[in-house]
Amino acid sequence: MEREVDVIVIGGGPVGENAADRARAAGLEVVLVERELVGGECSYWACIPSKTLLRSAAALRAAQRVDGAKQAVTGRLDVPAVLARRDYWVSDWSDQGGADWLESIGIGLERGHGRLDGVRRVVVERTGGGEVAYRARHAVIVATGTDPVVPRIDGLAEAAPWTSREATSVTEPPARLVVIGGGVTGVEMATAFAGFGTEVTVLARSGLLSTMEPFAGEAVAKGLRELGASVRLDAAVERVERTASGEVVVTLAGGETVTADEVLIATGRRPRSERLGLETVGLEPGGWVSVDDTMLATGAAGNDSQPWLYAAGDLNHRALLTHQGKYQARAVGDLVAARALGTPEQTSPWGAHVATADHSAVPQVVFAEPEAVSVGLTAAEAERDGREVRVADVSFSSVSGAGILADGYEGQARLVVDTERGTVVGATFVGQDVAELLQSATIAIVGEVPIDRLWHAVPAFPTMSEVWLRLLEALGRRTAADASAPADSEASDADDSGARSDDAEAAA
């Protein structure tokens, strides 16, 4: 016996939830399969808990950077209160709210492990025992995400290392922590635990945040060291051992050792697809699921004649970020509905190619100390892409709003401009609270806004967004077509403030 429904979604994280929601909103009958908690990795072991663990110490540091406020901040971070706040945000690891939401909008929930079993067929090994089979009239959307990679280092597996799950669900921070990996997870968790007072050592094979502009990783390394962490670059780990006393000894190339209470592995992610049944539809088990620009799984049996299998989120390896996965999910949910109902795909807000999931402007925020954010291409990537580019670099010391936000504010901004097209193709900001600057850069890139038009996007004074004016000035004065527009000057900005700050003088 098998039950027939319109759409089956395997994976109940944010990506699966969004895909199911869009398909259901169009009137389709949807069943969502989740083996753990509705809300997935992001809600319980990644984005939400990690950012709540980071926020309290960041707020304390922010207060300590403002004269008048720092005198009022006399205590230490209340770590138990931080952990309790984390518990609130993850609902004490209960997904009842998510399950109730699914029921309220008419989406069926199957708790268990879902796997493909041929074209349009899904078998669910139910958590409580037994199996049930479903057949999809229109589509199966797989959104099972990824798991942490545990590298093959001598003794590591036996040493019971932490992954991001153990780090974000910690109940008592260790006195000493070694973090292996210099990417986003490693950097953020090192920042969080250093904020708790843990003695942190970061071991990175190269620089930190190697996919960003070099100055971002350099600033974050400096920030971690100022928090008391040890940052070791070009560090190759040869062996890890858990001693009889419970300590972890990490041996580096050359024989040097680092001893800690726990070791966190943050060296990347792998697809959660080993038991997904991909081989039953002609795909390679255990790997990433390749997709076209509509998120349709390429090479899957039956997809050429009548599209049915889609992969959204981390599993397709296009951009391993929750917000990008949700973007893909919204688009593919609309596409599945349009194809199922026979409505023109052009009626969707995504256009004729509904789920193109444009990845030319992928925003990313690293909640480190300081924050590092980027979107689009780095200067090196743009050049490798064969573009003629100009790069504008400015310090946030030229922005009055930054100086008002924090005494002695340090930070840097960069725009990468395609000179042939006259548009921004990349942006990077580093500094306190720069995350909220990222959307404006994303819009500029996605909208292909000409530089000449950006001059007319006037930033309010005195805000951090004035960095855009400084960046445009670094690129050069207006074009001849724009020369008639009145020019702003740093001097007039300072006059408007009522008092000429050191930052304004530096800008002038």
From TrEMBL:
The cross-references to PANTHER family, in alphabetical order and at most eight, read:
DIHYDROLIPOYL DEHYDROGENASE, MITOCHONDRIAL, DISULFIDE OXIDOREDUCTASE
Q: Which SUPFAM superfamilies match?
A: FAD/NAD(P)-binding domain, FAD/NAD-linked reductases, dimerisation (C-terminal) domain
Show the ranges annotated as biased composition (Basic and acidic residues).
497-508
Q: Which residues bind FAD?
A: 51, 114, 314
- GO terms (BP aspect): 2-oxoglutarate metabolic process
Q: Which residues form the Pyridine nucleotide-disulphide oxidoreductase dimerisation domain?
A: 362-468
Q: Which InterPro entries match?
A: Class-I_Pyr_Nuc-Dis_Oxidored (IPR050151), FAD/NAD-bd_sf (IPR036188), FAD/NAD-binding_dom (IPR023753), FAD/NAD-linked_Rdtase_dimer_sf (IPR016156), Pyr_nuc-diS_OxRdtase (IPR001100), Pyr_nucl-diS_OxRdtase_dimer (IPR004099)
What are the protein's UniProt keywords?
FAD, Flavoprotein, NAD, Nucleotide-binding
Native organism is Agromyces cerinus subsp. cerinus
The positions annotated for binding NAD(+) are: 181-188, 268
Domain FAD/NAD(P)-binding: start-end pairs: 6-322
What the record notes about the co-factor is: Binds 1 FAD per subunit.
- Point out the signal peptide segment: none
* Region (Disordered), start-end ranges: 480-508
* Protein name (record): Dihydrolipoamide dehydrogenase
Gene Ontology MF term list? dihydrolipoyl dehydrogenase (NADH) activity; flavin adenine dinucleotide binding
Pfam families, per this entry? Answer: Pyr_redox_2 (PF07992), Pyr_redox_dim (PF02852)
The UniProt record lists the keyword NAD: yes
